Amino acid sequence: MTPGVLILIVLAMTIVGFILGRRRAVAMANREKVKLHSLPGYYGQTVALFVAVPAYVLLAAWLFLQPIVIENHISDLIPASAIPEGGARSLVMADVRRIANGLDYVVGKGGVSEDELASMRADISNIRSRLADVGIALGSDVKPVVFQAAKTYRKIGKTGSLLRDIAVLAAALGFGLWALWRVNPRMRARNTSETFVKALLIASSSVAILTTLGILLSLLFESIHFFRIYPARDFFFSTVWNPQFRGGSDLGILPLLWGTFYVSFVALLLAVPIGLMIAIYLAEYSGSTLRSFAKPAIEILAGIPTIVYGLFALVTVGPFLRDWIAQPFGIGNSSSSVMTAGLVMGIMLIPFVSSLSDDIINAVPQAMRDGSYGLGATQSETIKRVILPAALPGIVGAVLLAASRAIGETMIVVMGAGAAARLNLNPFEAMTTVTVKIVSQLTGDTEFASPETLVAFALGLTLFVFTLGLNILALYIVRKYREQYE
Amino acid sequence: MNEMTETATEAAVNAAASNRSVKMRGDKVGVFYGEKQALFDVDLDIYEHEVTALIGPSGCGKSTFLRCLNRMNDTIDGCRVTGKLTLDSENIYDPKIDVVELRARVGMVFQKPNPFPKSIFENIAYGPRIHGLVKSKGDLDEVVAISLQKAGLFEEVKDRLNEPGTGLSGGQQQRLCIARAIAVSPEVILMDEPCSALDPIATAKVEELIDELRENYTIVIVTHSMQQAARVSQRTAMFHLGNLVEVDATDVIFTNPSDPKTQDYITGRYG
Questions:
Q1: Residues A351 and A468 grouped into a single domain
Q2: How close does chain A come to B9, measured CA to CA in Å?
Q3: Do B181 and A375 touch (CB under 8 A)?
Q4: ∠A181-A187-A192 over CA atoms, to 5°?
Q5: Is B100's CB within 8 Å of A484's CB?
Q6: Which one, A197, A392, B98, B104, has least CB within 10 Å?
Q7: How far is B259 from chain A, CA to nearest CA, in Å?
Q8: Does the residue A320 lie in any domain?
């Protein structure tokens, strides 16, 4: 039985459980001549939930754990001698899985029977060509050990799946019958289903939290791995970034952090004033007709993929800045520069700043404006002296959110600022950022054990800490602001 | 004794009535919100150094009329005013009129106390600053102190002028807003249900204050409380469905109204 079929069967059992539970509650109430505590549907719902939830939870856990258990078991079967020089155990395991899948396919098509397969041996029968016949391409001839492992893999997998089916169906049936037996008119079915709804909502929200935690942990473990083979002091304080794929690299984060902050700074320098002025115009001056048209139009900017902004930087802004500003003033010859990336990123950030600030300015109570106008203040006096001070914490929050967006941006920087890691004050020089280097360290044919690749995780962790800090600061400020009026 | 004071007050009112002068005059004032007409041909005189109360059931147009007096309706989209409204015989809807200056002359206090989220001092100093009424920091300190004194708030807050105005109690906040309006030396003060968000004790204080302010300012107050109108005002105007039903001396309105609608409203039959 495939998991899909199993899911459908449990679903059918759930529906049956609902009907039986409802019917039993009504029948008992009629027989005992008492009033049901809850509406009949709630009794059905309770039984249905007891059928479905434990079974699906078990199934999910099983699907997650079975491959891990089997993998570990099979991995032990393969001796170190079967692993080719310079290769990894994981590659051999991938072969095992593919052969096992291929065998499933061959048997499924009726090419060989299970009995034949059991007596087959890799050194005698030509497994590779037989698998190739059904469309499974293998890189090399199959070693007997690997073939044996693949056969064991299939066997254990089959047993596991059978056990899984039995366990899931037993859980559905067992819990369902137990719930059905418990149904009686005095049972508080309405409250039970309330508890289930609450649990469901908690489970959904914990998915997001657990994912964050998972990302953080994976970054953390790989970073620890990195710091075991590369000194943390050099990473955080060295001013040279010079990875060598033959070893002996200098992996100082400072030039990358400098580039990140320089580009973000230029971007914010453009985005914050313009975004803020757009927000003030939309919130205070424009009529509702214009606003309903202009606000979505500006927000379209936020929907443009960053790679398109990158193209814009590469093809238009970069050459323009080089030919009209950098070269005439003799301050640079490169079309990739901090200025290019910063300006284009600034344009990208405008809608973030304007949209959030607009909402915040709108949230300032009308009473504040009335009070100011009532004293004979003009519109701009009111904005400058009453509305902006009142909205300031929220606007700071918006700017910080935009800043964390800028720090994490990659595509625009790759195409606009180049890939040269250097510490320089001249904004018309090419520089690069942390995110760009994460990409370039992980792309290409490199093994996952050298400091040159693992450094990506340490970079990622550093970036994560920075943006997390900014986000927390922003949330804190925004929350503090909210308390002021509500 | 009681009778004597009452007679004395009445005499004073009548004396005032004989030589009172019109501060603001409405002449066929109509207000439209988009297509909908909210106020129909209101003719109403506001006399100097008097408290004029505007009463009537909700939605009758009394607040709308009040907001016409300093053109606060301008801030509402699609609002249009017809007819003529004068301040010292000058039409305030004349295109040549400077709205900002008008609002400095005709101050306003709102239904809900709305101090700015600034310190008590800054709340009062706001108006004088933007209008350039003071030359030095010393002058500003003086204006703030005098305004707070006039609003009867000085003794309560003199030691904490730098604390936020939003931290005061509701009644204190409303008096702070009155002090803020006084600080720009207006001639007329408009009050839109200034006590509806306050408890009875704070209300009594504000009412007392309104009575004192009558000496120096002309006051127009919108209120839902009949007792309040009777207590603080000299003249009362009754509005109903956008029309001015009748206007007369407050004691006449409350003892001998000429229109049955007024009679019904003040006796609580509807409203």
A1: yes
A2: 33
A3: yes
A4: 95
A5: no
A6: B98
A7: 34
A8: yes
Residue A269 sits in a domain whose CATH number is 1.10.3720.10
Token duo for residue A257: 């952090």
Last residue of a domain, one of A155, A170, A187: A187
Q: d(Cα A356, Cα B245) in Å, to the nearest integer?
A: 48
- Cα distance between residue B54 and residue B226, in whole Å: 10
Q: Of the candidates B100, B101, B110, which has its C-beta nearest A370's C-beta?
A: B110
Name which of B77, B107, B112 is nearest A374 (Cβ-Cβ).
B107
A381 touches chain B (CB under 8 A): yes
Amino acid at B63: S
Q: Are the Cβ atoms of A372 and B100 closer than 8 angstroms?
A: no
CA distance B186 to chain A (A): 9
Measured between alpha carbons, how far is A143 from A146 in angstroms, rounded to an integer? Answer: 5
For residues A477 and A482, give the distance between their C-alpha atoms in angstroms, rounded to a whole number.
Answer: 9
Q: What is the pLDDT of residues A97-107, one digit of tens each?
A: 877 877 777 77
Q: Is residue A194 part of a domain?
A: no
Identify whether residues A121 and A249 lie together within a single domain: no
Domain check: are A414 and A292 in the same one? yes
User: What is the C-alpha to C-alpha distance for residues A161 and A41, in angstroms, rounded to an integer?
Assistant: 35
The reply to whether A277 and A372 lie within a common domain is: yes
Q: B36 pairs with which residues across the strands?
A: B33
Confidence category of residue B238, pLDDT binned at 50, 70, 90: very high
**Partner-chain contact B116 A368, CB within 8 Å:** yes
pLDDT over threshold 90, residue A342: yes
Asked whether residue A257 falls in the same domain as residue A374, the answer is yes
**A436 shares a domain with A327:** yes
- Is residue A122 domain-resident? yes
Residue B268's pLDDT is 77
- Partner residues linked to B24 by β-bridges: B46, B87
How many structural domains does chain A have? 2
A333 occurs within a structural domain: yes
| Last-in-domain residue among A156, A187, A218 | A187
Which residue among B77, B102, B112 sits closest to A367, beta carbon to beta carbon? Answer: B112
Model pLDDT for residues A237-273, shown as the tens digit of each residue: 888 888 887 777 888 899 999 999 999 999 999 999 9
φ/ψ (deg, to 5) at B40: -120, 115
Mean pLDDT, chain A, integer:
86
- Residue A251 and residue A183 share a domain: no
Q: Whole-prediction pTM value? A: 0.73
HSE of B137, CA atoms in CB hemisphere, 13 A: 0
User: Could you read off the pLDDT of B187-228 as tens digits, one per residue?
Assistant: 999 999 999 888 888 899 889 999 999 989 999 999 988 889
**Structural domain span for residue A379:** 241-485
ipTM: 0.85
Q: Give the pLDDT band (50/70/90) at residue A111.
A: low
Residue A476 has a CB neighbour count (10 Å cut-off) of 13
Residue A157 shares a structural domain with residue A94: yes
Cβ-defined contact of A370 to B184 (cutoff 8 Å) = no
Task: Please tell me the distance in Å from A478's CA to the nearest CA on chain B.
Answer: 16
B13 pLDDT above the threshold of 60: no
